[in-house]
Design a protein that fits this description.
The protein is of the alpha+beta class. Helices cover 33% and strands 14% of the residues. It has three domains: 232 residues, no CATH class; 75 residues, Ribonucleotide Reductase Protein R1, domain 1, CATH 1.10.40.60; 136 residues, no CATH class. A hairpin with an 8-residue loop joins strand 1 and strand 2. The protein is elongated, with a radius of gyration of 31 Å.
Length: 529
């Protein structure tokens, strides 16, 4: 009996020992799994931080002062693989920057230029510009009159449908609670609500952007083509021609604000210009703002559709008469003295671009008599090559033109270039051919070699493509470089090689630049060698 009891006790002890071993085993397994998961989480966080470092690096590159006014090249191998030394205790990390080159149909090292596209948020939405706004959109492949008017109705604030457009009444008939957006777009996806807009039309085959598709991952052997070079822009979806990012910057490279030539406080404008450029320049600019050019036929066109000297002269007469009606007795208004000037108005005339001031004399009637001033910037070669690029870094003509759109004339593909406000087909073709002859033939949407690009837009004049009068007309809508870039940043840890991909859009109008979009890309990791 006692032996039987001892056997039962022995069996119980063995069972307990086995259970304790099992618990210890499972506990150790759980700890190992926890350790692996913890290390994976740390590596994942490190890779995300490395990807963010890529964006910070690009911001730092574009925040540095330009040399001689030339923007940093947008597409370069120096953006390919950049190593972060001493990242963590047991390895190094790196990030890789790339963009989808639509013309070459492959990923390339560098960043894409969003300003080489047509900015939908800068389109003129007023009724008087309706024909021109439609024309601009119809320059883009696959955009019909119906699609153009539907996009414009989707953006404008009213509920009055355009000739071929669609407003909230249409969208309500299609689905309950449907209505037009009636405000600017936050991202290109917002276009998918437009009548007859499909993902395939916006993003191409499969309805997924090349930037988001896993099968187009950013491989370590970037540059290997998946498809032959694009032969025609018509093969591309709308995303390679349209954007919602970028615009004119009012900041200098050092972060200070530019002098705003169209501000209403003319005494303040006089003081700013006098402090930086001297009293003669300050007097000239303020007199232009108050009285305009001596020869009113030199006024730039107020309407995109007017193109005759007679219309220009009539416009000057109407503008002057309108100002006189608005100020029936300007002498009674409180005036401020600056030099020989009595400033008593916020300025009748606006400056559309610095070309308005080149070689243009002004005159103003004062209490001491007629003041006549010559332009501080004569119409000669040195002005264009040296003076204007430097002035453009310090002065801003924002709010000067009736349409705020600006297109990167050096990098925009042919379709977008033809969308320049008011530009005729003949002039557009001339610009395209001249640009090609100068070696400025962009890749969609990368950049052409920086060494062949002028610091400004004056190659249009120096090449004989546009004369000075045409430069005054089109300069408000042109930019020599972009203020928004797009790219994928891949953060890669070592030695585990955990990779995080993020798409970024940086808004470089500000100093320092800002992240306008940060989007994690989950399907890319399997594509990295």
């Amino acid at each position: 009996m006692r032996a039987s009891r001892r056997g039962v006790l022995m069996l119980g002890v063995c069972v307990i020992i086995l259970l304790m071993v099992a618990v210890a085993y499972f506990f150790s397994e759980m700890m190992l799994v926890e350790n692996v998961a913890s290390n994976g989480a740390i590596r994942g966080q490190q890779s995300r931080l490395l990807a963010d470092s890529g964006a910070e690096y690009v911001l730092s590159q574009f925040s540095e002062a330009r040399v001689g006014g030339t923007p940093r090249e947008l597409s370069s191998n120096r953006f390919a693989d950049l190593e972060m030394p001493n990242w963590g205790e047991d390895g190094r990390g790196r990030f890789r920057l790339a963009y989808w080159n639509a013309r070459a149909q492959k990923w390339a090292a560098g960043v894409a230029n969003e300003s080489a596209k047509l900015n939908l948020n800068r389109l003129p939405l007023e009724a008087k510009f309706a024909p021109e706004a439609r024309r601009m959109l119809m320059c883009i492949p696959s955009v019909t009159p119906s699609m153009a008017d539907a996009i414009l109705d989707w953006l404008d604030e009213d509920d009055l449908p355009r000739e071929f457009g669609a407003e909230s009444n249409y969208y309500q008939s299609q689905r309950e609670g449907g209505r037009a957006r009636n405000r600017y777009l936050d991202q290109l996806d917002d276009l998918l609500g437009v009548r007859n807009m499909t993902p395939e039309l916006l993003y191409g085959e499969g309805g997924v952007s090349k930037w988001l598709s896993p099968r187009g991952g950013v491989r370590s052997n970037m540059g290997n083509s998946r498809k032959s070079t694009l032969q025609s822009e018509d093969e591309l979806p709308l995303e390679f021609f349209l954007t919602v990012y970028g615009g004119e910057s009012i900041f200098r490279d050092n972060g200070a604000r530019k002098t705003l030539l169209n501000q209403e406080d003319l005494p303040a404008l006089y003081d700013e210009l006098a402090n930086e450029f001297g009293q003669d320049v300050a007097e000239y600019v303020v007199v232009y703002r108050m009285s305009g050019p001596q020869d009113k036929s030199l006024l730039p066109q107020a309407s995109l559709l007017e193109d005759t000297q007679a219309a220009t002269r009539q416009r000057a007469t109407d503008q002057t008469e309108s100002a006189q009606r608005a100020e029936p007795n300007p002498i009674e208004r409180e005036s401020v003295s600056r030099g020989p000037l009595k400033i008593s108005s916020p300025g009748i005339f606006r400056i559309h671009s610095l070309y308005d001031l080149v070689g243009v004399n002004v005159e103003h009637r004062s209490e001491q008599g007629m003041i006549q001033l010559q332009s501080p910037w004569p119409a000669e070669e040195k002005t264009y090559q040296e003076t204007l690029p430097a002035l453009q870094e310090k002065l801003s003509c924002v709010l000067g033109a009736s349409v705020s759109i600006q297109i990167d004339v050096n990098h925009a593909p042919d379709s977008v270039l033809r969308a320049i406000p008011g530009l005729s087909e003949e002039l557009a073709n001339s610009i395209i051919q001249t640009r090609k002859s100068l070696g400025i033939a962009p890749a969609i949407n990368g950049a052409s070699p920086a060494r062949r690009i002028s610091p400004g837009i004056d190659w249009l004049r120096s090449s004989g493509c546009l004369d000075l009068e045409q430069m005054r007309l089109f300069a408000p809508y042109l930019s020599p470089h972009g203020n928004a870039v797009r790219f994928v940043s891949a953060g890669i840890t070592a030695p585990a090689a955990i990779t995080t991909f993020c798409e970024f859009v940086l808004d470089l109008r500000y100093k320092p630049g800002r992240v306008a979009l940060r989007r994690p890309l989950m399907g890319f990791a399997a594509e990295v060698d």
